[in-house]
Structure formats: C-alpha cells, structure tokens
Design a protein that fits this description.
Elements: H1 8-15, H2 23-30, H3 34-44, H4 51-68, E1 81-87, E2 90-96, H5 99-105, E3 106-112, E4 118-125, E5 133-137, H6 139-149, H7 158-161, H8 170-179, H9 191-195, H10 199-251, E6 272-277, H11 299-310, E7 317-325, H12 351-372, E8 374-382, H13 390-407, E9 411-415, E10 421-425, E11 428-433, H14 453-466, E12 472-476, E13 483-487, E14 490-494, H15 503-509, E15 515-522, E16 527-533
Parallel strand pairs: 6-7, 7-8, 8-9, 11-12, 12-14
Antiparallel strand pairs: 1-2, 3-4, 4-5, 6-15, 10-11, 13-14, 15-16
Helix pairs in contact: 3-4, 3-5, 11-12, 12-13
C-alpha cells in the first residue's frame, strides 16, 4: 500500500490511463495496491472528492476488480469483533470492525442514469454468518434520511428516523447511515438534491429549516408551559376542594349563633408614646430632570413631606412624642460625603443654602407638632455620625438644638456625639444609629438580621458591652428601605427615607418612594409599627 496519499488529480489521471486493466497493472506501473485504492475511494478521503467524480472512480475500481477476478471488497479478518445483541426477543449477530474494515462491510453508492443524474442509491451490508443485506433507496427516501437525521434539518434521533423506514431495524438503519456517511453534522441535503439546486437556494432552505426548528421548539415550550400551568391549577383546585371539605367537616357541629360577642373598653388616650424616625433627608441633594426616576426635591417639597408626616396624628393624644433623627439629614458638606472623595450632585448655592434649608425644615417640623398635635412631653434625638452628613451635619444639629431650646423650652434635646445612642420609653430600650458612621465602618449595617448571625452578634455586643442591657429595639436608617426582623433578644428595624430615590440610587437600584416610619408604644411595652408614604 502506498504510504503517501495521492491527490485527486493524480488519481483521475491514473483512471484515464487506458493501459491499466487490472490491479496487477496498477501496482506494476504506479505502485498502488487494490487495498490502497479501496481505502482512498471508500474510506480515507471520500469527503474531499466531489460525488460525481467519486462515482466515476468507483466504477473504474470495480472494472479493475472484475478484470482481476477478485472481489471489490477488502477485509481484514484479524480485527473482527463479534458481539451478541438481544433485541426484541431475538438474538442477532452484529459485527463491529475497526473503522477501515467496517467500511468494507458496509457500502453505499449512488447510481446514475444515461443523463448523468443520480436515479437511486444502493447499499450492501455484509453480516457475518448471514446473507448480505442489499437494497436501494429512492431519491425521496435518501433526502428524507438526510433531512431527518441532520442537526441542521429535523434533528431527529436514529430511532425516530426509523419510523419513516419500516424496512430496517435500528442496527440496519445505523449501518445504512454509515454506508452513505450520513452524520449529525451533515447538511440536510442528499447528493442529488445538492446537484439540482443552486448554492443560494440551499442557503435559503437552511435558513428556513432553522426558522422552522425555532418555531416548533417555541410551540413545544409554550405547550409544555401551558400544560404545567393547567396541571398546577388542577392540583391547586383539588387542594382547595379538600380544604373546603375539611373546613365543612370541622365546623358542621359548631353553633356560631350562640357565640357571645364581647364589647371591649376603649384604650385611654394617655399612656401612649409616638416615636417618629425621620431618616435620610439628604437636604441639598440635586436631582436632574433627566434622571432615570425624577422627583422634585427642594425646600417647598420637603415641607410638603413634613405635612404628610404629621397629618395622620392630628386627632390623637399622646403622653409623649419623640422625634429620633437617624442621620444623613443633609446630603453632604463641601459637595462630598463625610469620608471625602465622593463628589455629590448638590444644589448650586452650596453649604450655606443647605444649612438654611436644614434650619428652616427642622423648625417647620417642630412648629407643626406644637401647633397641631396633642401631647404632654416631647423629646428630640439626633444620631452623632452618618456617612453623608458627618461633622457638618453634627454642627447643623447643635445649631438647631440651640434654636429649639429657645423657641420651645419644653423640648428635651440630645444631639449625640457617638454612633449609637440609647433612650427609654416606659420599660422599653431603644438604640438608634444611622447604619454607617463617618469613617470606620467599611460595611453598612444590613437591611435585615434574621439570616445574618454576624450582624446579630455585633448588635448583642453593643447591647451588653456598651449599654449593659439585655433587651432592646434597634432602629437604623441608611438603606432607604423599611423592614423589621428579630434577633436574639432584640427587634431590628430598618426605616425608610425622607428623600426617596437619589440620582445614584435610582440608576443602580431602581425607583424608591419616600417614607416615614414610626412606632406607637403603650405602657405595657406593646408596640404598633407604622409608616407613612410621603411622595
């Protein structure tokens, strides 16, 4: 056998040599054996030779075999592997060969008419110990085989394709596929189909096949989804029927008409404390009209939101009102956060105007409380540190404390110097903080703690080691969202913000409404939570 692969052109020239009548002439003149030519035409490089040329060369090869008085098929008996396969109750013999021998036992070829066009496809499958399986496929059958099996066609499995070819069993069909070199990666076009269509037509058909596959897949997915919904709804209906049956069974002996209706005594107006938690005012923050979520935010808008803070409590009487300001009341100082390096979009008038807005807004809040609400005592707390307000806000708060004490001497004030502050209401402890300090905390306190053991441990350390208490209500702002969860021995409440969405939070986390959260505490330590939408 020749060691070097000869080119297609050289092979065509040898085929045209009229002096070559037998394999002996071929080996004598060109040093090529029958086995080499067989492998060249049926195995090694079949795919790189055009089908029409391949058919011509194979006819020449068979003529040489006939003149030489030998079989055109080349076998290597030493490499046969026999394997018994039990299928559908009967035992058949399947011969599995190495690749080159297997091709010798499974042969497929196209047959052309006088007009040079393919008219059918013939195959011959040799099975050890049995008569060979021979037959032919029509042009339509071959096109069906290519289209159904190819990944770019119908993308069916061999067993599914078998439904269109009842003359075969699964083993025979697979050998026919191998005989004609039909794989999943083939184009979905038989050779005769390729010859009768232009390249553009074939590309258009491939595109159409792709669209059809996607459409069929979408329909299947839709049907599957709808069926799953119907199944789930049927289960839910059955569940509801069973629950209704259970309720009817459980309640059939209960006499509801005989129930005694208890008339409850009204709760006295006194003995209730209202705690307001205004947080994250961000006074001075500038929102461009082109922001993703634009909400006007100037001093008149801040006052409108303060009106909404107070209005729900107009007809109520409280023993005490506590305003606990949780920080970030101003957006920043010097156009930056307390830590610096973060330039903030703020009103053009700068720090002086922000200070004026702060003083006017806070004064307006306490004027409304004193003018419109009924109470006996009042307190004002402000946290000592927050990541936006920082020292600039603390100065604003101290300045406001001086104004408030002169304007309303009855207000008990506490402007903290620290991150955490504690106050008591009846027998309840309240720890307030912003949620992130001026400088040291690299991470905000979380929105919730029920699944955060590290945060729970941190808060327990603050309760026990800093304040010496074993039970508390821990109230924080910062994240512009409301949530209540519970840790060991404490209630953890994150409160909403007065601002709503800033330009940055809107772009990164979506739109967020402005809220005021509050607690109403009675003398028994019972707490009613609430929140008021402000925009």
């Amino acid at each position: 056998m020749a060691k070097k692969l000869i080119s297609q052109e050289a092979l065509a020239n040898i085929c045209n040599d009229s002096s070559i009548k037998t394999f002996e002439d071929l080996e004598s003149n060109y040093g090529l054996t029958q086995k080499y030519i067989y492998n060249r035409l049926y195995i090694s490089c079949k795919d790189v030779i055009p089908q029409s040329e391949l058919d011509r060369l194979r006819c020449w090869y068979k003529e040489l075999a006939k003149n030489s008085g030998v079989s055109p098929y080349v076998y290597n008996e030493s490499k046969k592997k026999k394997k018994n396969i039990e299928e559908e109750g009967e035992v058949i013999i399947s011969v599995e060969d190495e690749e080159d021998e297997f091709e010798g036992r499974v042969v497929g070829e196209s047959v052309r008419g006088l007009d040079g066009k393919i008219k059918e496809y013939r195959y011959k499958i040799l099975v050890h110990g049995k008569d060979p399986i021979e037959g032919s496929l029509t042009l339509n059958q071959m096109q069906t085989l290519y289209f159904q099996y190819s990944n770019e066609g119908a993308k069916l499995s061999a067993r599914k394709v078998l439904e269109s070819f009842p003359q075969f069993n699964i083993n025979e069909l697979k050998k026919v596929l191998r005989a004609f070199k039909i794989t999943k990666d083939c184009k979905p076009f038989a050779p005769h189909f390729v010859e009768s269509h232009t390249e553009e037509e074939l590309k258009e058909l491939l595109l159409q096949y792709s669209v059809d596959r996607v459409a069929k897949s979408a329909v299947k997915d839709e049907i599957k989804y709808k069926n799953s919904i119907i199944t789930d709804q049927a289960k839910e209906i059955e569940k509801l029927k069973q629950e209704r049956s259970n309720i009817e069974e459980w309640t059939k002996d209960i006499d509801f008409k005989g129930f005694e209706i208890k008339r409850m005594s009204p709760i006295p107006n006194s003995g209730k404390t209202l705690i307001l938690y205004p947080s994250d005012w961000h006074i001075g923050c500038y929102l461009k009209p082109t922001s993703t979520f634009y909400h006007p935010y100037d001093l008149p808008e801040i006052k409108r939101r303060i009106d909404k803070m107070i209005s729900p409590f107009l007809n109520m009487h409280f023993e005490e009102i506590i305003v606990a300001n949780l920080g970030d009341t101003i957006d920043g100082f010097g156009g930056q956060t307390s830590r610096g390096g973060h330039i903030l979009p703020q009103i053009q008038e700068g720090d002086k105007e922000i200070y004026k807005w702060f003083m006017e807004a806070m004064t307006y809040l306490f004027d409304l409380i004193h003018t419109n609400l009924k109470f006996e005592k009042i307190r004002y707390y402000a946290v000592g540190e927050s990541n936006h307000g920082g020292t600039g806000e603390w100065i604003c708060q101290k300045s406001f404390e001086n104004l408030l004490n002169n304007r309303y001497p009855n207000v008990q004030t506490c402007i903290s110097d620290e991150v955490y502050s504690l106050f008591k209401v009846y027998n309840e402890n309240f720890i307030i903080t912003h949620g992130k300090d001026d400088l040291n905390m690299f991470k905000n306190l979380p929105l919730t703690v029920n699944n955060d053991p590290k945060a729970q441990l941190n808060i327990l350390n603050i309760m026990l080691d800093k304040f010496g208490i074993s039970k508390a209500n821990f109230i924080k702002g910062d994240l512009h969202q409301s949530a209540t969860t519970f840790g060991f021995k404490f209630r953890y409440r994150s409160v909403g913000c007065m601002l709503g969405s800033s330009e940055w939070t809107g772009a990164n986390f979506g739109d967020n409404d402005a809220y005021l959260d509050y607690d109403i505490v009675n003398t028994k330590g019972e707490i009613l939570e609430g929140r008021i939408k402000l925009n």
